[in-house]
Specification:
The complex is a heterodimer of chains A (253) and B (258).
Chain A lengths: L4 H23 L8 H13 L2 H33 L1 H14 L8 H8 L4 H24 L3 H9 L4 H39 L4 H10 L3 H29 L10
Helix pairs in contact in A: 2-10, 3-4, 3-6, 3-8, 3-9, 5-6, 6-8, 7-8, 8-9, 8-10, 9-10
Chain B lengths: L4 H24 L8 H13 L2 H33 L1 H14 L8 H8 L3 H25 L3 H9 L4 H42 L8 H10 L4 H29 L6
Helix pairs in contact in B: 2-10, 3-4, 3-6, 3-8, 3-9, 5-6, 6-8, 7-8, 8-9, 8-10, 9-10
The chains are: A mainly alpha (253), B mainly alpha (258).
């Protein structure tokens, strides 16, 4: 008998919750491992106070802001590097020198420069999102079929129009993949940055309730981080399906 | 001069110009704490000579290897089983997909509650971070097997275990290698984040490791030059780990293209 995927999902998660419940009964320690209903109550309470959504909103807003900044920096640079070998040769080594230094490694220095506040997480996330977007853009622009560009050029299409009407649409699937990677890395970075150096946001809330030893609330916020991370990924995937329906499956997985 | 340097030289112009500009700016601002390239080099020499930096890196690497090994030991067999058997995949996948969007650093507060602020919590974070890329690539690897090979093996009467050992594992190895490489990168980022956060939030910050050392330079002795040395060290270690794994894969699996 084959069950529908949704049913399989529910069944698996039911097993997971049952195991969790049994272990929590066995440890009998609400600080170490609260039982599922306790955590569920905490989620409902936090949702009713809107606290859950306030912190989530702040983190999401920071992510969107940093993606806009990272995109504004990385897209033009990526197009320039992808279209002009000279620019690529001049800039690429600098990028490759900086790229291995993870955004998280910048936190202590950024803490010193910006202090605890809004700027720090946005800076860290922008840095974290910049490299995947840039590399994806360069690869996407370079992967554009030369024959399309040559055909347009043969027909006397000006360079600017070639970029907007040929290169951009052809590179769009790769750009959306780059955006997906950027979203994933900035979402990881926001949690780290907020946990260490922000007075608000999901990462801050998780650590705040840890210090108060309120584990059910800690787990509620962790669950929220997971749900939003998943939702962000689905959103970008939906964008990709909506705007680049011609792109094959390889871009969507 | 030979032919190669033309491109290399052009690539060096920008970093060198940035370094010079940085040095000039640092010398113009009279604050002796301002990081400049020369002060950073001096700080690096001090940190290496005193043995602090090598020791911190070794501490962090030890945690990374422990967590990474634990993740690989669980993720590779699990991923292969999921990729080879549809029922296993359908039943286990929901748990993996539910936890995958949760960043490793987000479970650090829980790890601290469970295991305290020492090495076990850091190892748990590393293992959690490395687990997902490894398992997902192992699944993909086990699925990408040429069905003809499977049918041939079945025709020749091989047992399920023998098929696993002689067909599934060898053809999945390149994908597993990719997963290990990605997992190692993620693990290294995670350990720096975990040590930083432990230093920042659990007080003291005396648990060792490069992340914790950076935080001490920030919070207690405000030595920006040394922070930058640590950042460069973090980047270098990431680069060396990645290159080493790439080389190991090429050596162990010369048949895999990339």
């Amino acid at each position: 008998m084959r069950l529908r995927p949704a049913l399989v999902y529910v069944r698996t998660m039911a097993v997971f919750v049952a195991v969790w419940w049994l272990v929590s009964v066995w440890t009998a320690n609400t600080v170490l491992l609260p039982s599922p209903p306790v955590v569920f109550d905490a989620i409902v309470d936090l949702a009713r106070d809107l606290e859950l959504f306030q912190h989530a909103g702040i983190s999401l807003l920071r992510m969107v802001l940093s993606l806009v900044v990272a995109g504004a920096l990385a897209l033009p640079l990526g197009f320039a590097m992808g279209l002009r070998r000279g620019i690529d040769a001049a800039v690429d080594p600098t990028i490759e020198l900086l790229r291995p230094i993870s955004g998280i490694a910048w936190i202590p220095l950024a803490l010193f420069i910006f202090g605890v506040g809004n700027t720090l997480p946005i800076f860290i996330m922008t840095y974290a999102a910049f490299f995947p977007i840039l590399l994806g853009t360069v690869a996407g622009v370079r992967g554009v079929d030369r024959r399309l560009v040559d055909a347009a050029r043969t027909m006397g299409v000006p360079r600017r129009t070639i970029i907007t009407r040929v290169v951009m649409p052809a590179a769009l699937p790769a750009l959306l993949v780059a955006l997906r990677l950027g979203v994933a890395s900035s979402w990881t970075a926001v949690i780290a940055a907020e946990l260490i150096g922000a007075p608000s946001g999901l990462g801050y809330a998780v650590e705040w309730y840890r210090e108060l030893l309120m584990t059910p609330q800690v787990m509620s916020f962790i669950a929220m981080i997971g749900v939003l991370g998943y939702a962000c990924d689905r959103t970008v995937r939906a964008l990709a399906e909506r705007f680049t329906p011609w792109a094959g499956d390889e871009w969507q997985r | 001069m030979n032919a190669l340097p033309a491109r290399t030289m052009r690539g060096l112009v920008l970093p060198l110009a940035l370094l010079v500009a940085w040095q000039v700016w640092g010398m113009a601002t009279t604050n002796p704490r301002t990081p400049t390239p020369t002060r950073i080099v001096r700080a690096a020499v001090e940190l290496v000579e005193s043995g602090d930096l090598p020791l911190s890196i070794a501490t962090s690497l030890g945690r990374v290897f422990a967590g990474f090994a634990a993740a690989a030991l669980i993720a590779i067999p699990l991923g292969l089983a999921m990729g080879a058997s549809r029922p296993v995949e359908r039943n286990v996948d929901p748990v993996i997909e539910s936890f995958r969007p949760i960043a490793a650093i987000a479970i650090l507060p829980l790890a601290i509650l469970w295991l305290g602020t020492g090495t076990p919590a850091a190892v748990l974070i590393v293992a959690y971070a490395a687990f997902f890329p490894i398992v997902i690539n192992a699944i993909a690897g086990a699925k990408r097997i040429n069905p003809t090979l499977l049918r041939a093996a079945a025709t020749m009467g091989l047992s399920r275990f023998a098929i696993m050992r002689t067909v599934v594992v060898p053809s999945a190895l390149p994908a597993i290698g990719v997963g290990l490489r990605i997992g190692m990168g993620v693990a290294w980022t995670a350990i720096v984040a975990a040590e930083l956060a432990v230093g920042a939030k659990a007080g003291g910050g005396g648990t060792g490791g490069i992340g914790s050392m950076m935080f001490i330079f920030y919070a207690y002795s405000i030595e920006l030059n040394r922070i930058v040395v640590c950042m460069i060290a973090v980047g270098l270690v990431a680069l060396v780990l990645d290159r080493a794994l790439r080389a190991a894969m090429r050596w162990l699996m010369p048949w895999s293209a990339s």
